[in-house]
């Protein structure tokens, strides 16, 4: 079950890259329309205004497509084989799902007209009651339906993946053999998805109330709520389940709900991007959304963890420092620029519970402090790119300078705490091992880019031991016949920063930004 949840968490990352890219465009646009930064002439130029309008149109469409993007990402990610068939089937499933719900709503005389604010006000409802009822519904791909956000897409994606994995190899009697295998999947989807729609029609109002209640609770908990989020998110890093928590906060009412330009939007990242895309941004709404975004990560990503790398270098044995210098420097720069921190975290999380808990606490504290200081730096990366575009270049209203001040304090604290704990408890961080299972020749071969796939495959126990290969943003996610055959030392020589053995079959190998190269090389080698 844990493996399935981890795989599910990874599928939720699919649409994130699109949304982050859209956010970067909005960040650039918001800079261009700020006369205090670029001057009145540039900000009011026709070509600039046309560019801004085009970007807003594209990004608004991307936000509207989020539910179906999640549906496709979940279905293809959870499908074991023939993923393109799952992607085809889930589009059919998504449309039918909402058409059936829309039809059931119509039978109860719930339509776009009868749920409009104007109509409800004429029925004697207060303005607040009218808005609450109206915001419970939306038009999705031209179909009037419940406002389910990404939950609808996730549900349809999971059901499609279940049907696909169960029936994509199904063989029918000879007379119907044309409909066997992959062709059978869309047929089963068409037959079964209406039942999912009917069940959702009755269950969703209660589920929606519970989710909105949880979002309200988190919102009312203020800075303490952001502390718990930051602390929990880092604590879940070794399991990979932090992706699930992140996406729930970023794209569902758990991360907040707001009305932007007359439209109800949910999720911290969605609200943030919607405010940026607004011709008249509401700064207070923006600040509320950024509580759960990158402003809470900058202190430990840009400053704390690079300082931890320096502490690990300074506490390494002198003879080993030249060997680990490049690795630690690359990991620190990756965290600083992009916000990818797992290569550093996996160097200490599993060998020092004290440093793991300390790191999680400092992450929560960072979110807590940014909330108290009303910082307003958003997006979902956490590195210097986000701080520059969404903080420094936006102007002083973001209070980005407070992030830097806190970050400098974090650098000092991380360095001395890591140095003290490593020396006090003799923590075997990189460079503190007295022996090595590999010779210099073996290390040189293992790190050779041309031999990367072959070396990883050898470290995993050979082709016969590999069942399934997948990867997320920083880890190889592998299913093996026997994880006890894995040569951890040889994997480390290929650039791996850590290993997570989930059980006797499932293992994750942390590579950081190098993971795409590692996955491609390994898949290529397995096919030979």
From TrEMBL:
<keyword id="KW-0813">Transport</keyword>
<feature type="active site" description="Phosphocysteine intermediate; for EIIB activity">
    <location>
        <position position="472"/>
    </location>
</feature>
<dbReference type="GO" id="GO:0016301">
    <property type="term" value="F:kinase activity"/>
</dbReference>
<feature type="transmembrane region" description="Helical">
    <location>
        <begin position="347"/>
        <end position="369"/>
    </location>
</feature>
<dbReference type="GO" id="GO:0009401">
    <property type="term" value="P:phosphoenolpyruvate-dependent sugar phosphotransferase system"/>
</dbReference>
<dbReference type="InterPro" id="IPR036878">
    <property type="entry name" value="Glu_permease_IIB"/>
</dbReference>
<keyword id="KW-0472">Membrane</keyword>
<feature type="transmembrane region" description="Helical">
    <location>
        <begin position="292"/>
        <end position="312"/>
    </location>
</feature>
<dbReference type="InterPro" id="IPR001996">
    <property type="entry name" value="PTS_IIB_1"/>
</dbReference>
<keyword id="KW-0808">Transferase</keyword>
<dbReference type="Pfam" id="PF00367">
    <property type="entry name" value="PTS_EIIB"/>
</dbReference>
<feature type="transmembrane region" description="Helical">
    <location>
        <begin position="12"/>
        <end position="31"/>
    </location>
</feature>
<dbReference type="InterPro" id="IPR003352">
    <property type="entry name" value="PTS_EIIC"/>
</dbReference>
<dbReference type="Pfam" id="PF02378">
    <property type="entry name" value="PTS_EIIC"/>
</dbReference>
<dbReference type="InterPro" id="IPR050429">
    <property type="entry name" value="PTS_Glucose_EIICBA"/>
</dbReference>
<dbReference type="InterPro" id="IPR018113">
    <property type="entry name" value="PTrfase_EIIB_Cys"/>
</dbReference>
<protein>
    <submittedName>
        <fullName>PTS system, glucose-specific enzyme II, ABC component</fullName>
    </submittedName>
</protein>
<dbReference type="GO" id="GO:0005886">
    <property type="term" value="C:plasma membrane"/>
</dbReference>
<keyword id="KW-0812">Transmembrane</keyword>
<feature type="transmembrane region" description="Helical">
    <location>
        <begin position="400"/>
        <end position="418"/>
    </location>
</feature>
<dbReference type="GO" id="GO:0008982">
    <property type="term" value="F:protein-N(PI)-phosphohistidine-sugar phosphotransferase activity"/>
</dbReference>
<keyword id="KW-0418">Kinase</keyword>
<keyword id="KW-0598">Phosphotransferase system</keyword>
<feature type="transmembrane region" description="Helical">
    <location>
        <begin position="184"/>
        <end position="207"/>
    </location>
</feature>
<keyword id="KW-1133">Transmembrane helix</keyword>
<feature type="transmembrane region" description="Helical">
    <location>
        <begin position="85"/>
        <end position="105"/>
    </location>
</feature>
<keyword id="KW-1003">Cell membrane</keyword>
<keyword id="KW-0762">Sugar transport</keyword>
<dbReference type="InterPro" id="IPR013013">
    <property type="entry name" value="PTS_EIIC_1"/>
</dbReference>
<dbReference type="GO" id="GO:0090563">
    <property type="term" value="F:protein-phosphocysteine-sugar phosphotransferase activity"/>
</dbReference>
<feature type="domain" description="PTS EIIC type-1">
    <location>
        <begin position="1"/>
        <end position="434"/>
    </location>
</feature>
<feature type="transmembrane region" description="Helical">
    <location>
        <begin position="51"/>
        <end position="73"/>
    </location>
</feature>
<feature type="transmembrane region" description="Helical">
    <location>
        <begin position="376"/>
        <end position="394"/>
    </location>
</feature>
<feature type="domain" description="PTS EIIB type-1">
    <location>
        <begin position="450"/>
        <end position="528"/>
    </location>
</feature>
<feature type="transmembrane region" description="Helical">
    <location>
        <begin position="324"/>
        <end position="341"/>
    </location>
</feature>
<feature type="transmembrane region" description="Helical">
    <location>
        <begin position="144"/>
        <end position="163"/>
    </location>
</feature>
